[in-house]
Amino acid sequence: MSVRVPTILRPYTKGVSEVSAEGSTLTEVLDSLDTSYPGIKGRVLDESGELRRFVNVYVDDDDVRFAEGLQTSIKDGGQVSIIPAVAGG
């Protein structure tokens, strides 16, 4: 499956905006990403292993916070998008 990487995390992927990963759940995909791009998982998850507060993750078009979180299933050929939250006014 493909994973869209936001600009702020692209130093981990050598500037690439979309990378491949393996797994049937979001946890497995993040583990796969961290194997290929060490350190990236630590920027998506906090110290307790949960999604960081200001990071949104979508599987296809669904926000995982409203699905099954890190256990959200991902189909073959699915798309994961990591999107930093934007604040301001």
Automatic annotation (TrEMBL):
Organism encoding this protein: Kribbella aluminosa
InterPro entries referenced in this protein's UniProt entry, alphabetically: Beta-grasp_dom_sf, Mopterin_synth/thiamin_S_b, SAMP1_3, Sulfur_Carrier/Prot_Modifier, ThiS/MoaD-like
Name of the molecule in the record: Molybdopterin converting factor small subunit
Pfam families attached to this UniProt entry: ThiS
Matching NCBIfam families: SAMP1 (NF041918)
Sequence intervals crossing the membrane: none
Record PANTHER family: SULFUR CARRIER PROTEIN CYSO (PTHR38031:SF1), SULFUR CARRIER PROTEIN SLR0821-RELATED (PTHR38031)
